[in-house]
Design brief:
The protein is mainly α and 466 residues long. It has 16 helices and 10 strands. It has a 3-stranded antiparallel beta sheet, with helices on one face. It has a 3-stranded antiparallel beta sheet with strand order 8-9-10, with no helix packed on it. Strands 1-2 form a two-stranded antiparallel ribbon.
């Protein structure tokens, strides 16, 4: 812990603020240098991958994807975040080099730099230069006056210049942006999550206004706040299409309870399901949920999938060389075991991924749980078309080797332990004789589903090599 100087209070405050400003300047300089090094590393990685001036667009694209994966696993970030850094570094060491210089000089903050990058994206060069000049001039003026320019004020002025000079009508740009509308879910602590929508501004404002009006209705005995009522109303309308207490919106539809039968996977410990224990369950796409919620979801489930590893269940975990495509029981086992794409840091759900033979079928690989893994289309292609290599290890662990020589391991979400003949479940509180589980997986990198949306669209139409 740094030492504390014995100074008068006012002097000590000035000293601390000056120290904070100095550290901020150092951080800005470090960020600028990091961008330069990212671009340099990308160029070196392209050389390692053999990219030359005569390389095809596909070869260059695959080299970029491989480097993004390398950077993501090096930094412990989601690939979407690493891809943003790579794209930013390319622009900041190219047409927006003046912005990078201002960051390194401490004149622009990282937030302002990203505003410049956002508002100079997809516009003609002369418009981008004019927008960038607004930020640089504001930063220089603030520096000369001994102050600082705020991002909100500079961003407002940049937007004005961008709109005034943009050659494409706003209506056309809005129509294109509207094609990217979507709904995003972000897990939050304590059994909660954020649900957000990206859509046209007037629809968003209209939705917010309608919820305010509905939430403001007087209701005797209702102790909820207006914000709580608005959230509950939005959930009721989205799930059931009606409000249980409002005939105008119900229109003969059934009440919310039982109206929705979501196709979701909830892994519930059997003793919790029977009410003999309160061990948390696991909600797919979220994580741990409390026992009461799990039992309620299980009670409304239209069907259940039983996954056991036992000689008497008939679940076959290997089909040898008889089948190339995994039958439904083996397919279900591998997807539930893996939970998500098995590439380091990827959070794409396994039920939206390909099943890949780690050792290719044409090279003698078997259709077995020890040779199958869930890989999203993006990483399935990366495995086949780049320098990334993977091998299975005991316990469902997968060992990845990057083109730069890094070795990384990923663990299955549910490392099922086989139950051998004559064995049974141990009573609660006792230790069994089953083999120890492999080490738990490291925490996932940034499970933001909106970060994955663009790559979902990008990969959906691309055939995977097998």
């Amino acid at each position: 812990m740094p030492g504390t100087l014995e100074l008068p209070t006012h002097t000590a405050l000035q000293f601390e603020l000056a120290s904070i400003a100095a550290f901020e300047g150092m951080l800005r300089q470090l960020h600028a240098d990091q961008y330069r090094r990212i671009q340099r590393a990308r160029e070196l990685a392209a050389e390692v991958d053999g990219v030359t001036a005569s390389s095809t667009t596909r070869e260059r694209d695959m080299a970029t994807r491989s480097f993004v994966a390398e950077l993501a696993t090096t930094l412990g970030q989601h690939e979407a975040s690493a891809a943003r850094l790579v794209t930013e570094a390319e622009r900041l060491t190219g047409p927006r080099s003046a912005t990078l210089g201002a960051l390194g000089a401490g004149e622009l903050s990282l937030t302002q730099l990203r505003s410049v990058l956002e508002l100079t994206q997809a516009v003609p060069a002369e418009v981008a230069d004019a927008v960038e000049r607004v930020a640089l001039d504001a930063a220089a003026a603030a520096e000369a006056a001994g102050g600082a320019s705020t991002n909100a004020e500079v961003r407002r002025r940049m937007r004005q210049v961008r709109e005034r000079m943009h050659p494409e009508p706003l209506a056309d740009r809005r129509a294109r942006a509207a094609s990217e509308r979507r709904v995003c879910v972000e897990p939050a602590p304590d059994g909660m999550a954020w649900l957000s929508m990206f859509l046209e501004a007037e629809r968003a404002i209209a939705i917010d206004h309608r919820l305010d009006v509905l939430a403001a209705r007087e209701a005797s005995g209702d102790s909820r706040t207006a914000a709580q009522r608005a959230a509950d109303l939005a959930a009721d309308l989205l799930l059931g299409g009606a409000l249980p207490d409002d005939e105008r919106t119900r229109s003969g539809l059934a009440a919310l309870t039982g109206a929705v039968q979501p196709r979701i996977n909830v892994t519930v410990p059997v003793l919790t399901l029977l009410g003999l224990d309160d061990e948390p369950a696991d909600l797919e796409e979220y994580g741990p949920i409390d026992a009461d919620t799990a039992r309620r979801l299980a009670g409304h489930a239209p069907s259940m999938r039983r996954i056991l590893v036992h000689p008497e269940t008939g679940v076959a975990l290997s089909y040898g060389r008889e089948h190339y495509r995994a039958p439904s029981d083996l397919d279900g086992f591998v997807r539930v075991r893996d939970g998500r794409c098995r590439f380091p840091g990827c959070s794409r759900r396994a039920d939206r991924a390909d099943l890949d033979h780690t050792t290719a079928w044409e090279h003698g690989g078997q259709t077995a749980d020890a040779n199958l893994a869930a890989l999203c289309r993006r990483h399935h292609r990366l495995k086949h078309e780049s320098g990334w290599r993977v091998a299975h290890e005991p316990g469902g662990v997968m060992r990845w080797s990057s083109p730069a020589g890094h070795v990384l391991r990923t663990w299955p979400e549910r490392p099922f332990v086989p139950v051998r003949a004559g064995e049974g479940a141990d009573p609660p509180g006792t230790s069994g004789s089953a083999d120890p589980l492999p080490p738990p997986p490291p925490p996932a990198f940034g499970d933001r589903f909106d970060d994955e949306w663009r790559s979902v669209l990008e990969d959906a139409a691309e055939p995977a090599p097998f």
